[in-house]
Write a structure and sequence with these properties.
It is a single chain. The protein folds into 2 domains: 35 residues, no CATH class; 111 residues, no CATH class. Helices cover 15% and strands 47% of the residues. It is built from 1 helix and 13 strands. The strands form 2 sheets. Strands 3, 4, 5, 6, 7, 8, 9, 10, 11, 12 and 13 form an 11-stranded antiparallel sheet that branches. The longest helix is centred in the first third of the chain and has 24 residues. The radius of gyration is 25 Å and the shape is globular.
Amino acid sequence: MPKCGTISRRGSKPVSLGTLGLGIMARHAIVFVLLLAACSSDPKRPAGVPTAATWAGGADGGAWVQCDQTTKEPYAAFDCTTYYDGGSLWARGHYIHATHRPTGYVPVGDPFPRIKPESYDGRVIYLTRGTALVPDGWVEYPVERAHEKRMEFRLGKEVSPEISY
């Protein structure tokens, strides 16, 4: 009869539950690390997407985002260009670092942000710290080479009808 804390099969050597538990835990840890590595890697950068653009998305898609800071005070503002995951231009325009309140977006002053885009919904660039870059001014959305549309925003709210040209 096997001792308490061991597992035995007929004709086999008893195995300690502690040893068995560590083996299972080690296998689970390896699987977890592999899944984490697979999920956290950026997709291959398409031709035409600048090296300064960072990936904002997940396994199911996203956007490449490049932002250059234009002002620090009274709040951080950026000129941003977004690209579809395949590399074509999605939008370009002026954005302000903001946080969402029940009344809408409010500019964030200090501290100065180190932006890390997490996702883009076609209008707002969401950042990893719960804030966002919201459009403020004109944003251009190229539809095709000979046709574009523009929209004007104030703190993420559309303030003029879409203009096609």
